[in-house]
Design goal:
Layout (H helix, E strand, L loop, with lengths): L2 E4 L9 E7 L6 E2 L4 E6 L4 E5 L4 E4 L7 E3 L2 E7 L5 E2 L6 E2 H9 L3 E2 L17 H9 L18 H13 L18 E5 L6 E4 L10 H4 L8 E4 L15 H13 L6 E6 L1 H12 L4 E7 L10 H9 L3 H9 L10 H11 L2 H14 L10 H6 L4 E6 L18 E5 L6 H4 L1 H13 L2
Parallel strand pairs: 13-14, 13-15, 15-16, 16-17, 17-18
Antiparallel strand pairs: 1-8, 2-4, 2-7, 3-6, 4-5, 6-8, 8-10, 9-11, 12-14
Helix pairs in contact: 2-3, 5-6, 8-9
Length: about 425
């Protein structure tokens, strides 16, 4: 019988939600484990996978508010006929009845074996491949229905070390000339380009835009040694800035509004001072580099902890209200910590840019040399970087000093952060 696609519960506090983006189209043949759609709320981004093989029909339009547990699509087996169902979301209990009472239409469906367009790796296999900078396109899996598993990726890694000896296509190394990036929003006009802070990744920005209207394109990048970018650590701030500049130049034509958080704000400031990109403005959230002080216990502890009970206290240091740290946020960080190559790269990053628990790079000379519109958004209750250092800002830099806010102003006060970015875009 048809398999309902259910909108899952992704947080304890939400009873409703929206499909932010479908990864498949009406009538497409899908495979079990294939990502069907994405969910974004103010704290998390979640991918929902197919529970069965078949043809997907009756997709609830993206952006439509639905109840948690509602049916948002239906997967029909190749031998099943499907009805022209109302696409309004239905509770699971009534979905089968609705299907049974609707007229059916017979459609010819290609065999599932011909519909597989990729290796369909398990999450663990995908993570191992990403950590090793390997493309697994064309890799034959030994799991159910040809799914690529951990042992398949490890076997190919071993074959690479020995040289090409098999008949299957060998994985190719990904190019390292572009940092990993995601367009969080598409649109026209001046793009906002976002750089995350130390020990984070581009997903830290998703909560800023989830469930909110924001005009214009938004591009987020993973810094070197973070997320899915190459794990090699640049020699200094200029080498790091150059990598970011090269990546942005290959993705965007024309002017951009550059924004960064914490260490990403320091990188953004160096880029602005170098003058290699066409910037219309600079927005810095809790910027690093205003003084030598940094919470060294945090930079060490967040890399040392690898379990939920030990990671959460360090994440709570980032915010004034610990409720901002969702379970999904916590799980994502725990998964990162259990990725040893990634954690080792972040530790090398910290040793290079925060030697002996000190911020070795100052952004003040760069800020003094910049003439473009610049705003700084800083929480008065920041426990990672001292808010008092905001007094060092040059007079031409606008400061938004936020009460009851910690080190994550873009997540703790997202409406204000979006308004600031929008104002800067409009004035460009």
């Amino acid at each position: 019988m048809p398999t309902p696609v259910i909108y899952p519960k992704v947080s304890l506090e939400n009873a409703v939600g929206k499909v932010s983006q479908w990864r498949v189209t009406e009538g497409e043949v899908v495979c079990a484990g294939q990502v069907l759609f994405e969910i974004e709320n103010d704290k998390a981004a979640v991918e929902v996978e197919a529970a069965a093989d078949g043809v997907i029909r009756h997709l609830t339009p993206a952006g439509t508010e639905v109840d948690v547990g509602a049916q948002v699509a239906t997967i029909y087996a190749p031998s099943e006929a499907f009805g022209d169902l109302d696409t309004k979301p239905q509770p699971v209990a009534t979905a089968a009845a609705a299907t049974a009472t609707t007229a059916t239409v017979t459609t010819s469906v290609a065999p599932l074996e011909n519909a597989q367009r990729g290796p369909r790796p398990t999450p663990l296999a995908r993570r191992i491949a990403r950590d090793q900078s390997l493309s697994i396109d064309g890799l034959a899996g030994t799991g159910p229905r040809g799914r690529v598993q951990k042992k398949d990726v490890l076997a190919y890694l071993s074959s690479l070390a020995r040289g090409p000896q098999g008949t299957s296509p060998a994985p190719q190394r990904n190019a390292n000339d572009t940092l990993h990036h995601v367009w969080l929003r598409r649109g026209s006009g001046v793009p906002v380009v976002l750089l995350h802070g130390f020990a984070g990744d581009l997903n830290n920005w998703r909560g800023l835009f989830a469930g909110a209207r924001f005009e214009g394109p938004v591009l987020a990048l993973d810094l070197p040694g973070h997320g899915q970018s190459p794990l090699d650590i640049p020699a200094d701030m200029d080498a790091l800035a150059l990598l970011v500049e090269q990546s942005i130049a290959g993705l965007v034509d024309g002017a951009i509004l550059l924004a960064g958080h914490s260490f990403g704000a320091a990188v953004a400031t160096r880029i602005a001072a170098r003058g290699s990109l066409d910037l219309c403005g600079l927005c810095l959230f809790a910027p690093a580099g205003l003084g030598p002080e940094i919470n060294a216990a945090f930079t060490e502890g967040i890399l040392r902890a690898d379990a939920s009970d030990s990671v959460r206290p360090w994440l709570n240091e980032l915010v004034h209200d610990s409720a901002v740290i969702s379970d999904a946020f916590l799980r994502a960080v725990v998964e990162q910590r259990r990725n040893q190559p990634l954690t080792d790269a972040m530790r090398a990053f910290a040793n290079r840019f925060f030697p002996d628990g000190t911020q070795s790079h100052s952004i003040l000379p760069d800020l003094n040399s910049i003439t473009l519109p610049t705003r700084v958004v800083f929480g008065r209750n920041d426990r990672i970087l001292p808010f008092a250092r905001a007094a060092e800002l040059p007079g031409h830099v606008a400061l938004h000093a936020l009460a009851t806010c910690g080190h994550m102003p873009h997540l703790e006060q997202p409406a204000l952060a979006r308004r600031i970015l929008s104002e800067m875009r409009r004035s460009a």
